[in-house]
C-alpha cells in the first residue's frame, strides 16, 4: 500500500516540480511565490505519505481504523476507494455525495467517525481545484486592492456563496437526518438527469462568455440554484453549471464559475462539519485520513482537467444519461429486493 501511494504521489509531484522550475525562470514575484508554494506542498506530501508507512508498519501498535480495530489492508482499501470516488465525482455533475452514500454502503464504511473521513477527502478535492486555478486565484489576490475586475469577481463569489451559508445553517441537520439515504439519492439522480437533458436540448442564448463578465445578478442566481445541491444526489456542480447555462452563461463560464464557487462553499462546509464533529478526529485515524486525502487530491485534479477539455467539444448529455441509468439501477435493485438500500446512509 505504501509503494502504491508513493508511486501515485511521485506522479503528481512531477507536475509540481516542472511548474516550480518554470516559475524560477521568471523574475516575477507571483511565479516565485508559486515556486515556493509548490516546493512546500511537495515536501508536505512527502511527509504525509512517509508517515503512513511509519504509522502502519513501523509502530508497535498499528493505527486504528474508523471502526475501532487495527488499520488492516481492507481498511486502507476502503479509504482508497472512497478517495477515488470523491476525487472523480466531486466536480462532475453526477453528485459526489450520492456516490459516497452508495459506495460507502456497498463496502460497509460508515459510522459517526466516517463523517470526519468525508471532511478530509473533501479537503483533498478542494486543494486540487485550488491548485488547478492557482494562477487565476493569485491574479485576483494581487489585483484585489486596485483592479476593478478582481474586485467584481470576488464580490460575485461572495454573493453566490451567501445563499448556501444561510440555508445550510438553517436546514443542514434536517436534510441530513431525513434525506441522506440511497432512495433519495437515486430519485434525485434521475430527476436531475432529466432536467439536465432538457436544459441541454433547450436553445441557449449566451450573454456572458467569461467569469470576468458576470454580473452580481448572474452570481446570485447561480448561488440560489446551488442550494438545490443540499438534497443528496442533486450535484452541486450539476446544479450550478446547468443553472448557469439557463441564465445565459457560456459553457466555459458556467463550468469555471462552478469550480471557483466550490472553493468557499466546500471550505465553509468542511469548517462547519469539522467543528461539529471535532470529537470524531482521532490521531489513530491519521493514516486512513492521509490515504483518502492524497487519493482524492490526485483523482480530483484528473477529473477537473478532463472535464475542462471535455466541455470544449461536448455537451453534458452523457452525464445526464449516466445519472438516469445509475439512479434507475438503484431504484430497481431496491424495488425487487435485491439490495436493502433502506439502511444506506452517509
UniProtKB/TrEMBL annotation:
Membrane-topology annotation of the record: Multi-pass membrane protein
Designated name of the protein: Undecaprenyl-diphosphatase
This enzyme's EC code(s): 3.6.1.27
Family classification: Belongs to the UppP family.
Organism from which the protein derives: Pseudomonas amygdali pv. tabaci
Subcellular location: Cell membrane
Keyword NAD: no
Membrane-spanning residues: 115-133, 153-172, 178-199, 257-275, 287-308, 320-339
Residue ranges the record marks as coiled coil: none
Catalysis performed (reactions): di-trans,octa-cis-undecaprenyl diphosphate + H2O = di-trans,octa-cis-undecaprenyl phosphate + phosphate + H(+)
